[in-house]
Amino acid sequence: MNQRLAMNPTSEEQRLLRATAASDPKSLVRSGQLFRIALTAVVAIGCLAASGAASAHWHGGVWIGPGPYWWGPPYYPYYPYYPPAVVVTQPSPVVQVPAPPTYWYYCRQSNGYYPYVADCASGWEQVSPQPPAPAPAPEAAPR
Questions:
Q1: Are 129 and 103 in contact (CB under 8 A)?
Q2: Which residue from 17, 25, 62, 63 lies 20 to 30 Å from 9 (Cα-Cα)?
Q3: Nearest to 105 by CA among 84, 132, 123, 78
Q4: What is this structure's pTM?
Q5: Could you tell me the end-to-end alpha-carbon distance of the chain, in angstroms, rounded to an integer?
C-alpha cells in the first residue's frame, strides 16, 4: 500500500479496505473483531448455562416490560363437580347346553359291560346307565 492510502483513503479506497478485511481472516484478528465475536459467544453460552443451573434451584422470576399493573384478583373459573358416571352392565346370559346322553354298552353273550368285557362276538347293546343297587346296611353288632 502506498502512504497516501494509509493516511487519507478516499471513499472508494475505504470500500475496498472493508471488502478486503471482511474476506481476509487475518484482518479480523488484527482488527479485534474476531475477539469480540468470540467473547460474545462465550458470554452467551455462559448465560445459557447459568440460567439452566439457576432454574434448578431458584424459582423466582424477572419481569421485563412496562411497570406492574394490577387488574384485580386472578380469575379462576368455577367448574361444578360431576360425580363419575355409573355404568351398569347386564350379566351375560348363561347358556347351558345339555350334556350328550351317555350310554353303557352291554354284551349279552358275556353277560358284562364294556370296558370290563373287551370283545363281544354277538355285538354290543346300547343301554341307559343304571345306578348300582344300594349296598345293604351293616348289621348291628351284638352287645
A1: yes
A2: 25
A3: 123
A4: 0.26
A5: 149
- Name every residue whose Cβ is closer than 8 Å to that of residue 128 and which is 6 or more positions away in sequence: 101, 103, 104
Q: Tell me the one-letter amino acid at 69.
A: Y
Cα Rg of the chain, angstroms: 54
Alpha helices in the chain, H assignment, sequence order: 3-7, 11-23, 25-31, 33-55
Contact 31, 25 (CB under 8 A): no
DSSP summary character for residue 130: -
Instruction: Give the model confidence (pLDDT) of 8-64 as tens digits.
Output: 657 777 766 666 655 555 665 566 777 888 889 888 887 777 665 555 555 566 656
Q: What is the spatial distance between Cα 7 and Cα 20, in angstroms, rounded to a whole number?
A: 17
Report whether the peptide linkage leading into residue 98 is cis, meaning its omega lies within 30 degrees of zero: no
- Residues 70, 88 contacting (CB under 8 angstroms): no
